[in-house]
């Protein structure tokens, strides 16, 4: 079996989003088990670490073309390699970031993104104090230079961390310049053509869940 074959989704199935969200959890936990010296890992073991049902884990892993041995489980090194390739974490996806404020600046300084396959190669802002400088080695250009920079860099992803009022306008600019996927951190529900991928991400949505559960536990 070639490596290329291993990373193909079985039968070209479209992988459900919840599965795609859980697979990185399994990956992190399998890496942890490797650090502890494990050579094989079963769905039951991953289940213990992640608190996710073992049958759900087996089902999720069935989208990834890897087979385990009865009773022994999956070979840890192979599972890590196959999961990383399947999730696209081994390829580097280059991105531009718009809006180097408190959130955008933090993302530019996050070395973790690269481990998950995302490399922000340049950023754009309109603040004269930022334009022409760099952060964590990443150059910051004026937003007006975006189209020109699209010709210089091979980029398909745009990270959106601008004020909410201009979220749509910047999105339109990005798409007309050739961006194919937008990682949207603004709370604005941006509208895009059908062929453009949008991923909305909010730290605050998770906070609300935590507060709600905390209150629930306090009054139990
Ligand atoms: N998803 C989340 O969890 C989360 C967390 C924090 C903030 N946010 C959102 O992210 C966005 C940024 O928040 P922040 O706190 O970093 O704001 P901020 O005010 O610190 O930063 C915004 C930056 O955008 C720049 N900007 C303004 N016009 C621009 C343009 N035309 N082109 C490029 N850059 C431009 C500003 O100069 C500034 O540097 C907001 O929409 C906010 O609601 C989301």
Detailed description of the structure:
- There is one protein chain.
- The protein contains ten helices and nine strands.
- The protein is of the alpha/beta class and about 220 residues long.
- It folds into two domains: about 5-85, Arc Repressor Mutant, subunit A; about 95-205, 3-Layer(aba) Sandwich (Rossmann fold), CATH 3.40.50.720.
- The strands form two sheets. The protein has a seven-stranded mixed beta sheet with strand order 5-6-4-3-7-8-9.
- Strand 5 (about 135) and strand 6 (about 140) form a beta hairpin.
- The model is unreliable at about 1-10 (pLDDT under 50).
- Bound molecules: nicotinamide-adenine-dinucleotide (NAD).
- Nicotinamide-adenine-dinucleotide binds next to helix 6, strand 4 and helix 10.
- Helices and strands: which structural class? alpha/beta
Q: Strand count, sense and closure of the main sheet?
A: 7 strands, mixed
Q: Could you say what the CATH architecture of the largest domain is?
A: 3-Layer(aba) Sandwich
Bulk shape: globular
Cα distance spanning the termini: 53 Å
Tell me what portion of residues adopts beta-strand conformation: 15-25%
Mean pLDDT comes to 89
Number of DSSP-assigned strands = 9
Query: Percentage of helical residues?
Result: 40-55%
Low-pLDDT sequence parts = 1-12
Radius of gyration: 20 Å
Report the bound ligands by name, code or SMILES.
nicotinamide-adenine-dinucleotide
CATH superfamily of the largest domain: NAD(P)-binding Rossmann-like Domain
Number of helices: 10
- What string gives the helices and strands in order? HHEHHEHEHHEEEHEHEEH
Q: What name is given to the CATH topology of the largest domain?
A: Rossmann fold
Instruction: List the strand order in the largest sheet.
Output: 5-6-4-3-7-8-9
Please indicate the count of domains: 2
């Amino acid at each position: 079996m070639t490596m290329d074959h291993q990373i193909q989704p079985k039968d070209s199935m479209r992988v459900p989003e919840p599965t795609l969200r859980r697979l990185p959890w399994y990956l992190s936990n399998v890496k942890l088990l490797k650090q502890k010296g494990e050579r094989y890992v079963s769905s039951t073991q991953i289940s213990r670490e992640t608190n996710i049902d073992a049958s759900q884990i087996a089902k999720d892993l069935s989208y990834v073309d890897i087979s385990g041995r009865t009773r022994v489980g999956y070979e840890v090194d192979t599972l890590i390699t196959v999961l990383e390739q399947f999730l696209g974490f081994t390829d580097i996806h280059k991105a531009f970031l718009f809006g180097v404020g408190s959130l955008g600046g933090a993302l530019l300084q996050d070395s973790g993104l690269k481990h998950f396959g995302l490399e922000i190669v340049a950023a754009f802002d309109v603040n004269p104090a930022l334009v022409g400088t760099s952060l964590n080695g990443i150059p910051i250009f004026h937003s007006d230079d975006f189209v020109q920079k699209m010709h210089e860099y091979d980029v398909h992803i745009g990270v959106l961390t601008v004020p909410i009022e201009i979220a749509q306008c910047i999105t339109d600019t990005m798409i007309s310049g050739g961006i194919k996927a937008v990682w949207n951190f603004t709370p604005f529900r941006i509208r895009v053509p059908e062929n453009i991928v949008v991923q909305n991400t909010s730290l605050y949505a998770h906070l609300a869940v935590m507060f709600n559960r905390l209150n629930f536990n306090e009054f139990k």
